[in-house]
Design a protein that fits this description.
The protein is mainly α and 233 residues long. The chain has one domain. Helix content is 64%, strand content 8%. The protein is built from six helices and five strands; from the N terminus they run ββααββαααβα. The strands form two sheets. The chain has a three-stranded mixed β-sheet with strand order 3-5-4. Strand 1 and strand 2 form a beta hairpin. Helix 2 runs parallel beside helix 5 and helix 4 packs antiparallel against helix 5.
């Protein structure tokens, strides 16, 4: 996940210290655009995991239906499917997780951008002094060493913040998967499905009969349960 953009390099030629100016603005805009769409990347991953989970979930409970005792009786198999895209778009938990990851991403960006701006200011100040010949060779070398270390610290900060966001994303994926799986198990105590498939555009299921669609009922019940469990929180 690429949230942060700029890098600076420091070079010495003879006795004159030179620090290149910022990277091409076009590249900067492209990176900024990637930043703005970071949250969509996060939830596309969550959505993919959700589709995989819902794709084929086998429910126990055969013993609760006497007609299922005869395994050769294929007509006793009860199947339903859920539109995974609809669940991911309208399940309240997904919206709450999206809000959380957006907030965490904003904090990470703000923290990095603040330190990056300070670094840029120091680079610009150094460049002015070099151009004005107001630094001795020793001062220039010391400043370059300082700025080089600060650049490394920024790179380490970027990696740390990105890793933390990735860990938060993984925890949210797990929370979402557990929520859907546990709900469907409770849902199935009442409805006794043998199989519930996840149907979505681009999935391996190319066609599904609308009469088997239980999306509305699942979405209504899962949201009602979520609201009840989180009311007053």
């Amino acid at each position: 996940m690429s949230i942060f953009a700029k890098n600076y390099t420091f070079i010495m030629e003879n006795e004159n210290i030179q620090i290149p100016v910022e990277e091409n603005k076009k590249e900067e805009k492209c990176e900024h655009k990637k930043c703005c769409h970071c949250m969509y990347h996060v939830f596309s991953i969550i959505s993919l995991v959700g589709v995989i989970v819902l794709f084929i979930l086998y429910f126990t409970g055969r013993s609760s239906r006497g007609s299922y005792g005869n395994k050769s009786n294929k007509s006793s198999v009860v199947v339903g499917y859920v539109n995974s895209d609809t669940i991911m778009e309208h399940y309240d938990l997904v919206q709450d997780l999206k809000t959380k990851i957006e907030a965490k991403e904003k904090l990470a960006n703000d923290s990095f951008n603040m330190q990056q701006k300070n670094f840029e200011a120091e680079v610009n100040d150094y460049q002015r002094k070099v151009q004005a010949n107001t630094l001795s060779i020793a001062q220039a070398q010391a400043t370059e060493k300082y700025l080089g270390q600060k650049q490394q610290n920024l790179a380490a900060l970027k990696e740390d913040l990105t890793q933390k966001l990735s860990n938060d994303e993984l925890k949210m994926n797990t929370e979402l998967i557990d929520s859907i799986m546990n709900f469907l198990k409770r849902f199935n105590r009442k409805h006794n499905y043998d199989y519930v498939f996840g149907f979505a555009k681009g999935s391996n299921i190319l066609y599904a009969n609308d009469s088997l669609d239980i999306t509305k009922e699942v979405l209504k019940d899962i949201n009602n349960e979520y609201k009840e469990n989180h009311s007053g929180k």
